[in-house]
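Exercise 7.
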Amino acid sequence: METYAQVVDRLLEMGVISVGTADSLKSLIRLRNLIMHRYWEVDDLARDREAKAGGLDSIEGFIREIREAAEDH
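Solution. The predicted structure, written as tokens, is:
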């Protein structure tokens, strides 16, 4: 069984996503893991800043790159 981060690494290795997208997704994965497993340590303001700073852009970039890869195959 692979972790979310391992899936991102595999997509990067296969050339499906860019390094920038992989890095931003891993940041979101770390935030998700913190919220899910150590929620008592989460700084709500920091979480909101992270999400607003690039969370949505990261996801949109990921979707765009996956679509491009699918169209190429």
